[in-house]
Design brief:
- The complex is a heterodimer.
- Chain A has one domain.
- Chain A is built from 8 helices and no strands.
- In chain A, helix 4 runs antiparallel to helix 7, helix 6 packs parallel to helix 8 and helix 7 runs antiparallel to helix 8.
- Chain B folds into 2 domains: about 90 residues, Orthogonal Bundle (Rna Polymerase Sigma Factor, Chain: A); about 70 residues, Winged helix-like DNA-binding domain superfamily/Winged helix DNA-binding domain (Arc Repressor Mutant, subunit A, Orthogonal Bundle), CATH 1.10.10.10.
- By secondary structure, chain B is mainly alpha-helical.
- The N and C termini of chain B lie far apart (about 45 Å).
- Chain B is elongated.
- In chain B, helix 2 runs antiparallel to helix 3, helix 5 packs across helix 8 and helix 6 packs across helix 8.
- Classes of the chains: A mainly alpha, B mainly alpha.
- The interface between A and B is large, with 51 and 67 residues.
Chain lengths: ~200, ~190
């Protein structure tokens, strides 16, 4: 087996890598892309530097993960509704406005993903109505936390689109949103079956 | 660094500074200098000319928007490549529409590589084609490490994977490439 000694110009020591290294790094596009780029640039000027806090974005991501775990625990240990109370008590309480996460300009979320999220959101809203008011409030607050984290990371990506870590964090945040919906839908099933 | 290279680097630094202040002409100069490397990377990672062109545009628009955050800690070309790679990775995550045809087979290897534009008398097209048929993970690292010369640490950071995974993918790429090149020779 051929091994590549790391740190000793390995591309020159492996025939295949040596061949690859001789391939041209540059390939010209079939057409000039500049006019289309220039048209898009005219819609925006370079962002002015903002005081973005990396630790804050990371903390936001960590908070989302922690809250998600707590939420799961909370939903699993939620006492079932007392017979007769069911969901009416919950509906009588004013519910804070629930908004799905707004995807920012760096999200690269596709139409199909949005459609899948919206379908899950319909079920989520229905189940949320059936939860006790206190639980519903926690869920809504958690969604707001996820939104805040998504906004922070999206803003950071606007300034540092080269960051693989930020891209990963943003994806994780969106996954957290979907997991939250999914957990509520699933836990809601359990709750409504309890007597 | 040679005198010529130093002058070139100075030119680039000046153009970056001007572009940061909103000078589109300076940014066009940066585009002209770097579009070939960015497009080459996108084409090799996606294997699809139209997608590569779209991603190249996205990369430069994103770079323009983000220039104030570029502090010159890495080469401008490396910074652009990182943006391009993130654009490619984000595009891969996005689900395909009903009318879009997957570019990859079950292994992530490409069914058909649009290599027409690579064909000239000096390009070893068989090697390009063989690279294009690799599964995504193996192809990514062979392109970044083999063609663009990034170290395993750099490539791993760009792709968001562990250095060990990077090395394992390169080993896999080597094995698959040898097998495919031998098959080509046997035809």
């Amino acid at each position: 087996m051929t091994t590549i000694p790391f740190g000793r110009e390995p591309r020159d020591r492996d025939e295949l890598l040596a061949q690859a290294s001789r391939l041209p790094e540059e390939i010209a596009p079939t057409r000039d892309l500049w006019p289309a780029i220039a048209a898009r640039l005219s819609e925006q000027t370079p962002a002015t530097p903002r005081r973005f806090s990396w630790p804050l974005a990371l903390a936001a991501g960590f908070l989302v993960a922690s809250i998600s775990a707590l939420l799961t625990w909370g939903l699993m240990h939620e006492p079932g509704p007392v017979a007769g109370e069911t969901t009416l008590a919950g509906r009588a309480t004013s519910q804070p406005a629930l908004m799905p996460v707004r995807y920012g300009p760096n999200s690269a979320i596709g139409e199909a993903q949005l459609k899948a999220r919206d379908e899950l959101l319909v079920q989520f809203r229905r189940r949320l109505e059936e939860l006790p008011p206190e639980t519903r409030e926690i869920v809504t607050k958690n969604l707001a936390i996820i939104q805040r984290a998504a906004d922070e990371i999206d803003a950071a990506l606007g300034e540092d689109p080269a960051s693989g870590l930020l891209n990963g964090l943003l994806l994780s945040t969106y996954q957290e949103e979907l997991q939250l919906y999914s957990k509520v839908v699933t836990a809601g099933d359990g709750l409504t079956r309890r007597t | 660094m040679t005198e010529l290279a130093r002058e070139s680097a100075d030119d680039e630094a000046e153009r970056v500074a001007r572009a940061r202040n909103g000078d589109v002409t300076a940014f066009e100069g940066l585009y002209r200098d770097h579009v070939g490397r960015v497009y080459g990377l996108c084409l090799r990672m996606t294997g699809h000319a139209q997608t590569a062109e779209d991603l190249t545009q996205d990369t430069f628009v994103s770079a323009w928007r983000s220039l104030p955050g570029y502090e010159g800690r890495s080469l401008f070309s490396t910074w652009l490549h990182r943006i391009a790679i993130n654009a490619v990775l984000a595009q891969r995550r996005a689900p395909r529409g009903r009318d879009e045809v997957s570019l990859t087979n079950d292994e992530g290897g490409q069914l058909e590589f649009e290599a027409k534009q690579l064909m000239d008398s000096t390009t070893p097209i068989d090697l390009e084609r063989a690279i294009a048929t690799l599964p995504m993970g193996a192809r990514d690292i062979l392109v970044l490490h083999g063609i663009y010369g990034y170290s395993h640490e750099e490539a791993a950071g760009m792709l968001g994977i562990a250095v060990g995974s990077c090395k394992a993918q390169l080993h896999r790429a080597r094995q698959l490439m040898r097998a495919r090149m031998q098959m080509e020779e046997g035809k």
